[in-house]
Every structure is written in structure tokens, then in C-alpha cells.
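Much of what follows relies on a compact textual record of a protein's fold. A record is reproduced here so that you can trace the correspondence yourselves:

. . .
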Amino acid sequence: MRKSRKVMILRCLSAAAVGGAVAWFYGTSRWQEEMELVEQYRVLCDAFSIPGILMVLFALLFSLNNLGALDTIAYLMSFLPRIIAPGAFGEPEKLIDFVENRRQKRTKGYGFLYIVGFIFLGIAIFYLVLFYKVF
């Protein structure tokens, strides 16, 4: 197996572990033994949809960042300390230079968040269907 495939599997498993922990913490905080079956399905649907939605939204945010949609905001945030303390942080660079530096340093490889997030959302939809079948 190639190294890139192993890294992708490891990333997916680690994201699934974090998402599973979030789902478990949410589920155990809401779970009661005397709950009806409908309420159990609702809790399970919520427990799996929260990490799924968070992972997909973080993946969208990282994708937008890789496309350069947040470069101007990042430039303004790097420019802010220079306004507060002008001599402490050196001369500010131009926006064009800042964007070029960020374009060269772009990181890729956040597709595993889409994969794991949509798997969690699929599980949540399964419990949602069960909820409406019983309800």
C-alpha cells in the first residue's frame, strides 16, 4: 500500500475517532434508560449530526482558505499589530506580496474531513429515517 493511502486512512480514522468521541459525549449526556425508542433515535440522530456538520463546515472553510477567499482577512489581521505598535513588528508588506506568500504556502489534504463528515451525516440521516418511521 502506498504511503499516501496509509496517511489518508490514518487521517480518516483519527477524524472518525474525534467525531465518535463528540457523538459519544453528546449521546451519553442526553441518554436515559427510560427513554422511549423515538427519543433514543432523536438523541442518536443529533449525536451523529453534530460532528458530521462540524467536519463538513470545517472542510468547506479550509477549501475556501485554499482558494484564497480569506487572504484579505488574514492580511488585515497581520496588519493590525503593526497599527497598534508601529515600530515593534517592522514594516508591513504589500497586499500583493502577502497573497503571493500565502499562495506558495497553501496546504492541501483536507478531503478526509469531507469523507468522514458525510459518513457521520449518513448515519444521522439513517437515525432520522428511523425516527420518522416510529414517530
